[in-house]
Specification:
Layout lengths: L3 E5 L5 H9 L4 E5 L4 H5 L2 H12 L3 E3 L18 E7 L9 H15 L3 E11 L21 H6 L3 E8 L26 E7 L9 E7 L2 E6 L20 H14 L4 E2 L8 E4 L11 E2 L2 E2 L5 H5 L6 E5 L23 E4 L7 H5 L9 E9 L11 E12 L3 H24 L4 E6 L3 E3 L12 E12 L7 E12 L5 E9 H9 L12 H4 L20 E8 L8 H11 L4 E11 L6 E9 L8 H18 L3 E2 L1
Parallel strand pairs: 1-2, 1-4, 2-3, 4-5, 10-16
Antiparallel strand pairs: 5-7, 6-7, 8-9, 8-14, 9-13, 11-15, 12-15, 16-17, 17-22, 18-20, 19-20, 20-21, 21-22, 23-25, 23-26, 24-25
Enzyme class: ligase
Catalytic activity: tRNA(Phe) + L-phenylalanine + ATP = L-phenylalanyl-tRNA(Phe) + AMP + diphosphate + H(+)
Protein name: phenylalanine--tRNA ligase
Length: about 625
C-alpha cells in the first residue's frame, strides 16, 4: 500500500504542496490549526490548497496537534510519517510552553503513527538543544526535544539540515502568529522513531543437570535478559560471534586448531573462607525430584532450561537467593566469572593434543563497578595450548603476535583506521578462583601480560583499555606448561565496529542486528542519537563499624535502573567530628543508549534505588 503522510501545523500549505508533487505515489493529509475561512483568505494558502486537492491530497482545518486521534477513524490512524515544521505556541511563548506543546504533540503522534513510522520535527537553529545545533544553546534555554520526545517513547534517530531553498515553492510564514516569514538558516529536521519499551524484567528460573542431580535456581534479576541470548550459536549473526570466528580463522593459519567437544558448566562450586565474595553472583540451588515431561523434551537432561515464573524471591546484598521454602543444596555455587576456571580440566582430558590450540568460549558473569569498560556479563574466548617446559616463551610470543595481527586486521578492514596494540606487563598472580576460596596451588594461573589497545574510536579522547590477558599455568601431570590467552569478545566487537556503549550489544532492538546481516562486520550507526541524561544525588550515613560495599552499591544501581545508570561518582565524603559517623554523597547519571528514557522514569528509578540501598546496605538516608 502507498505510504500515508500526515502534515501538521501547515501555515500557507507550501511545504505540503511541494512534498505532494515530489512524492506523487504517497497519500497525503495536510492540516492546519486555523479555520478554513481564515486560511483561504490568504492568496498563497488558497493556491496551495487547490494544488493539494488537485493532486488527490486531503486538507483538514482546525486540527489540534495534541489530539490527533480525534480527527481520524481507527482504521485511518496508521501514518507512515508525520511532519511538523517549526511548531510554536504563538507570539512570545517561552521555551517551557513550547516544550509542553511538543510533549503533547509526541504523545498524540504515538496514537496515529505506524509501528515503524517516523516523526519529522523541524526547528530553528539552537531550539532543539542537541549537539547538532550550531551554536548550541544552554540546556535550560532550549526546547529539550529529545528528552521531551522520550516521554512518549520516541528516540531521535537522525538529524538533517532543513534546506528550505531545495523545496520548490516553499515559503515559511508564521512569525509571531502573523503571515510573516522568519529565518530558517541553520534549521534542523529531527527524525524520531519509536523506542522499544524499557524492560520490566520477569523472574526467570534455570533448570539444569548438575552431575547426577537435577537442580534449579532463580537467575539474578539483573541478568535475566542476558543469560540465555545464544550470541555464539551457529545461526547467530551477532558481531560478537563474527569476531570470534574471524579471529579463530587467523589463528588457524599459524596453529593447529583443535575442535573441543567440552560442555562448560554455567555454575562453579566454591568453598567460602571468610564470607561471601562480593564480586561473583552466588547462587542457591534447589533440588528437583523429577523433571517434567516438558522439561525433558526441552533438553533438561542434557543441558539448561530457562523458564519464566510468576513470583519473585528477594536477593540479599551478595546476590544469593533467599529461598522462602523448600529444601536447598548445602554446597555453594556461583555463576562462572571466567573460563580460566576450566583450563586445567581441558588440558587433563585424554583427547587434548599438546602443540594444538584448544578453544573455550562462552558468557561469564562478574559483579563490577559501573564504568564504560566494566562489563558485568561478557563473552570470553580462551585459547589454550600445552608445550614442553622451556618452550613457553616462544609459544607465548607467537600466540600474542598472531592475536595482535588478527585484531589489527579486523579493525583496519572495517574502519580503515590504524590501531595501536601493546602488551603490558602484569603486576603479579591472579587466582582462577575468587580470593576468598581455598584454591589449590595447581589452580593458580600466572597472568604475564595484558593485551591493551590505544584508540579514540570509542570515546572523545584517546585511551588505553585491556581486551585480554596472556599467561601460563603448570599442568597437574606430564610436566607440560599450559599457555593461555583470554580475550573479551564484547570489547573487541565494540572496538572493531565502533560501538561506544557495551549495553548496545545486548539490545533487543532489531535495528542493531540488522546492520550485521550475514555476519558481516561494519561500522555501527546508532539509531538513538543524543540520548538525554538525568543526574541525581544521594547522600547517607554508613552503618557504624561496617565496611561499605561499593560493588554491591553499584550492583543495586544496575538492577533497579535496568542498566540505565551509566556513571556513579563519589562527590563528597564527610566524617562527623563528635560521633565519627561517616557520610557519603554519590552522583548517579541515568542514560539509555537504545531506548527512550524520560525524566520521570529516571526519577522513579532513583526513588527505588534509595529504598533498596537502605534495605540492602542498611544505610541511613540524609
Amino acid at each position: 500500500p502507498a505510504p500515508r503522510i500526515l502534515l501538521i501545523g501547515e501555515g500557507n500549505f507550501s511545504f505540503a504542496a511541494a512534498l505532494c508533487e515530489a512524492a506523487a505515489a504517497a497519500r497525503f493529509v495536510a492540516t492546519c490549526y486555523e479555520g478554513e475561512e481564515e486560511v483561504s483568505a490568504r492568496a498563497l494558502a488558497a493556491r496551495n490548497i487547490r494544488r493539494l486537492r488537485d493532486g488527490g491530497a486531503e486538507v483538514l482545518f482546525s486540527v489540534d496537534c495534541t489530539k490527533l486521534k480525534d480527527y481520524f477513524l481507527p482504521s485511518d490512524r496508521m501514518f507512515s510519517c508525520v511532519y511538523f515544521n517549526f511548531p510554536h505556541c504563538g507570539r512570545k511563548a517561552g521555551v517551557v510552553k513550547n516544550r509542553e506543546l511538543l510533549a503533547q504533540f509526541f504523545s498524540s503522534c504515538a496514537e496515529v503513527l505506524a509501528e515503524k513510522g517516523e516523526v519529522h520535527v523541524a526547528l530553528c537553529n539552537g531550539q532543539g538543544g542537541t549537539p547538532a545545533d550550531r551554536p548550541r544553546r544552554e540546556w535550560h534555554n532550549s526546547w529539550q526535544i529529545v528528552a521531551v520526545a522520550a516521554g512518549a517513547r520516541f528516540i531521535l534517530s537522525d538529524v538533517r539540515p532543513f534546506s528550505a531553498e531545495s523545496i520548490h515553492g516553499y515559503k515559511c510564514t508564521g512569525y509571531r502568529s502573523q503571515d510573516k516569514s522568519f529565518s530558517v538558516e541553520g534549521a534542523l529536521n529531527h527524525i524520531f522513531t519509536r523506542s522499544t519499551p524499557l524492560l520490566h524484567r520477569q523472574p526467570v528460573v534455570c533448570h539444569m543437570q548438575l552431575g547426577s542431580r537435577r537442580v534449579s535456581f532463580q537467575v539474578p534479576q539483573m541478568l535475566v535478559d542476558k543469560i540465555n541470548r545464544d550470541f555464539l550459536e551457529l545461526s547467530s549473526e551477532h558481531p560478537v560471534r563474527t569476531v570470534k570466528e574471524k579471529l579463530t580463522a587467523v589463528l588457524s593459519q599459524t596453529f593447529p586448531i583443535q575442535s573441543i567437544d567440552c560442555s562448560i558448566p554455567l555454575l562453579h562450586q566454591g568453598h567460602v573462607s571468610g564470607g561471601c565474595h562480593s564480586n561473583v553472583f552466588w547462587i542457591v540451588l534447589k533440588p528437583e525430584q523429577n523433571a517434567s515431561t516438558e522439561q525433558m523434551a526441552n533438553g533438561l537432561a542434557n543441558g539448561v532450561l530457562f523458564s519464566h515464573i510468576d513470583f519473585c524471591t528477594d536477593a540479599d546484598n551478595n546476590g544469593c537467593m533467599k529461598v522462602q521454602e523448600g529444601n536447598v543444596i548445602s554446597e555453594q555455587y556461583f555463576l562462572r566469572p571466567s573460563l580460566l576456571l576450566y583450563v586445567q580440566t581441558l588440558i587433563e582430558r585424554d583427547t587434548f593434543l599438546p602443540g594444538t590450540l584448544g578453544i573455550l568460549c562462552g558468557p561469564v558473569f562478574r559483579k563490577c563497578p559501573i564504568s564504560p569498560r566494566s562489563l558485568p556479563v561478557f563473552h570470553e574466548v580462551v585459547f589454550v595450548g600445552a608445550v614442553d617446559k622451556g618452550m613457553e616463551s616462544g609459544f607465548i610470543q607467537l600466540l600474542v603476535d598472531t592475536i595482535r595481527s588478527g585484531i589489527y586486521s579486523l579493525h583496519h578492514t572495517v574502519s580503515g583506521c590504524k590501531l595501536n596494540i601493546a602488551l603490558q606487563e602484569a603486576t603479579g598472580f591472579e587466582a582462577t578462583e575468587p580470593d576468598d576460596f581455598a584454591a589449590s596451588a595447581s589452580q593458580i594461573t600466572k597472568i604475564q601480560h595484558s593485551i591493551c589497545v590505544q584508540t579514540d574510536a570509542l570515546g572523545s579522547c584517546e585511551e588505553d583499555f585491556c581486551v585480554g590477558t596472556v599467561g601460563t599455568a603448570c599442568a597437574k601431570s606430564n610436566g607440560l606448561v599450559v599457555v593461555f590467552a583470554s580475550l573479551n569478545l564484547d570489547l573487541l566487537a565494540m572496538l572493531v565496529c565502533g560501538i561506544a556503549d557495551w549495553r548496545m550489544l545486548w539490545t533487543s532492538d532489531e535495528r542493531f542486528l540488522s546492520q550485521f546481516l550475514g555476519g558481516e562486520l561494519r561500522l555501527f550507526k546508532s539509531f538513538s542519537l543524543y540520548p538525554p541524561s538525568y543526574v541525581h544525588d544521594v547522600s547517607f550515613w554508613v552503618p557504624e563499624r561496617e565496611r561499605f560495599d561499593e560493588v554491591t552499591f553499584h550492583t543495586i544501581a544496575r538492577q533497579v535502573s535496568c542498566e540505565t545508570v551509566v556513571s556513579i561518582q563519589l562527590i563528597d565524603s564527610f566524617q562527623h567530628s563528635e560521633t565519627a559517623r561517616k557520610s557519603l554523597c554519590y552522583r548517579l547519571t541515568y542514560q539509555s543508549c537504545d531506548k527512550a528514557l524520560s525524566c520521570q522514569e529516571a526519577a522513579e528509578m532513583q526513588l527505588l534505588f534509595r529504598k533498596e540501598i537502605q534495605r540492602c546496605l542498611r544505610v541511613t538516608l540524609r
